[in-house]
Amino acid sequence: MRSTMTNLWHPVIGIQISDLGEKRFMFKFFHRMGLERVIKGSPWTFNNHLLMLYLLNEGEDPLRVPLILVVFLVQIHGVPQGFFTEALAHQLGGFLETFFGV
């Protein structure tokens, strides 16, 4: 994972990746620009597994952070012009909630 994500993200100065166990890793960026680029490029995956990213606050235990929410942007293609209404948006949102089990 270390070499793959480092090659993919190209951190400005460098990155330290620590395996915390329990399928958790800590990514420490040595320059804010590298961190911001990774956050803006979310969501990320590794070996078909979603990487849930969280910015730790000072003193926060990374093993106690509840990783339960990821924000996605969903694009809907093929809706004829004039047919995309608020009602359709609510229907699509309901479908996505059902599909993803939210």
UniProtKB/TrEMBL annotation:
It comes from the Eukaryota. It holds the Pfam family DUF4283. Residues 1-62 form the DUF4283 domain. This is DUF4283 domain-containing protein.
